[in-house]
Write a structure and sequence with these properties.
With about 550 residues, the chain is mainly β. It has 5 helices and 33 strands. A hairpin with an 8-residue loop joins strand 23 and strand 24.
């Protein structure tokens, strides 16, 4: 994408941009003065891609983003947006060093733009899928081809990075295999967790329009109708493509006072340090199935299975357990950890965990408890005869030993070598439900000026980020293009939970030039502004 940003074009139009002013703007410096930033498709990015080891193999495919009516089981058939008519989308699987060539065809309605972000992959910056920072948004009716070398094995996924499209059906797993895999197991099962609203009680755009009114605008009257705009009876299906931008009132918000159709109150979780989430979801899915009509994994007793667990949700952390089994954590966010046996896992939005289980004999519930929300996703593991447990079952493992990410240890071969920290950035998480003004360092990210107020780093630096959560809610903080290490010997991750009023320090090596988003992976917090640009100086 051309780095001359919108403001420089406006200045030029006003006739005030002399050569100096235009040069300053085209550097993408935003408001911090004369620091030129690495261009997402510039020479530094090309040089970085040349260093990646390639097998020379290419996998080519087309992903069509389009409206679809999907079958979630149990008679639940919502209209949503999906890749190739299914949710989750079809798994993509490559070997490390292979090149993915994926053409995105945007067939979304109402001139809706989109993109694909390859979550967790350290790839070349202009393929990261974040308009307008790394590319121009893919317009309706047009295509864009993503082409990049996959440089680290592991469990990843992909989703759009435009508005709150993440909370529709546009997501799928991306598995990068390691030909030198040392882990021994008999089979694997990819497990995608998702909180579902789209086409059932409303759209994610309607959810966001309600949330951004803040608690201040809420009509808390007990007698309030589900929607105070007088539109309760209308079929909102036709409005599915509406992008509730700054200026358009949401269908449920046009009356001034607002009732709470989507906002969740009183979701409390000790594990998450208080408020667990903002949004009421009618369903929690495992592999695109509702709890009453679950996905079933069929295996043999005594076999060792690798579960690749991905939280593709918008606003829900899941506590995951397999009834009657212990799980051994082997990886998180694609990178190996020192093996750790647990009863259950806590997995925030955007996180992934790989675990090994040795299957017992019978029928067992895989339960993803929606943390603090009194609901759950449900799947079955069947290795023998027996009747299936109820979808509301709460295996005792859910209350057993749970390890948070910061208690895990990186495997020796992926732990960062100790090095002097070259630069430390304070990342203060700010805002709240009252005004829905989520931000980083008190400054909501401006998508119209993505290069304004960057967090500046330089290639070759060891960077420390000190997250301080000054809010009353937990935030899963995701860094694009890199994996960081939690503390001196914690796991390598790209998404980590920062609890309310707590600090988390992470380190990474600045080895992938470009402009990279750092944001809360709660779809609604990120869209409200809890996002920043971690940008390399040119």
């Amino acid at each position: 994408m051309n780095s001359i940003n919108r403001r420089s074009v406006l200045l030029a139009g006003l006739g005030v941009a002399g050569a100096g002013a235009l040069a300053a703007c085209s550097s993408g410096s935003g408001s911090d003065g004369g620091n030129a930033l690495v261009n997402p498709s510039g020479s530094a990015v090309a040089a970085g891609e040349k260093k990646r080891k390639s097998t020379g193999r290419q996998q080519k495919l087309t992903l069509t983003a389009a409206p679809a009516m999907i079958d979630l089981g149990g008679g639940v058939m919502p209209k949503t947006w999906a890749f190739d008519g299914r949710t989750p989308g079809k798994e993509i699987r490559l070997s490390v060093g292979d090149t993915l060539v994926a053409e995105l065809s945007n067939q979304l309605p109402n001139k809706t733009t989109t993109s694909i972000h390859w979550h967790g992959i350290a790839l070349r910056n202009d393929m990261d899928g974040v308009p307008p920072a790394t590319q121009t948004a893919v317009r309706a009716g047009s295509t864009f081809t993503y082409q990049f070398i996959t440089d680290a094995p592991g469990t990843y996924f992909f989703h759009p990075h435009v508005g709150v499209q993440l909370d529709r059906g546009l997501y799928a797993p991306l598995i990068i295999e390691d030909p030198k895999e040392t882990l021994a197991y008999d089979d694997e099962w990819v497990v995608l967790l998702d909180d579902w609203v789209d086409g059932v009680t409303g759209t994610p755009d309607e959810v966001f329009a309600e949330l951004r009114q803040g608690m201040g605008g809420m009509d808390m009257g007990d007698g309030s109708s589900p929607s105070s705009s007088g539109m309760e009876g209308h079929d909102m299906g036709d409005m599915g493509g509406m992008d509730m931008g700054e200026d358009s009132p949401s269908p449920s918000a046009s009356s001034g006072g607002m009732s709470m159709k989507f906002m969740l109150m009183g979701a409390e979780s000790e594990l998450l340090g208080g408020d667990a989430g903002d949004v009421k979801y009618p369903h929690h899915l495992i592999n695109g199935r509702v709890a009453t009509d679950p996905d079933v994994y069929t295996g043999k007793p005594g076999k060792k299975v690798r579960l690749r667990i991905i939280n593709a949700g918008g606003d829900t952390a899941y506590r995951v357990a397999l009834g009657g089994h212990k799980m051994t954590i082997t990886h998180t966010d694609g990178f190996p950890v020192q093996h750790q046996e647990v009863d259950a896992l806590l997995i925030g939005m955007g996180e992934r965990y790989d675990v090994l289980v040795t299957l017992g004999d019978g029928v067992f519930p895989l339960v993803a408890l929606a943390e603090g929300k009194n609901a759950n996703g449900f799947a079955l593991v069947r290795t023998g005869s027996g009747s299936a447990p109820k979808p509301t079952v709460r295996p005792k493992e859910l209350d057993g030993m749970i390890m948070s990410a910061s208690q895990l240890r990186a495997a020796d071969d992926v732990r960062f070598k100790s090095a002097k920290t070259d630069v430390t950035h304070q990342i203060k998480l700010t805002g709240g439900m009252d005004k829905y003004n989520w931000a980083i360092n008190g400054r909501p990210f401006d998508m119209k000026d993505p290069q304004g107020n960057p967090i500046l780093i330089e290639e070759g630096q060891r960077v420390r980020l000190d997250f301080f959560n000054d809010t009353d809610m937990w935030h899963p903080m995701h860094l694009h293009g890199h994996t960081y290490q939690i503390g001196d010997s914690g796991p390598r991750k790209d998404t980590a939970i920062v609890l309310p009023k707590k600090k988390l320090s992470v380190f990474f090596d600045a080895d992938n030039p470009g402009q990279w988003m750092l944001h809360c992976h709660n779809a609604y917090h990120g869209e409200a502004g809890m996002m920043a640009n971690v940008a390399y100086k040119a």
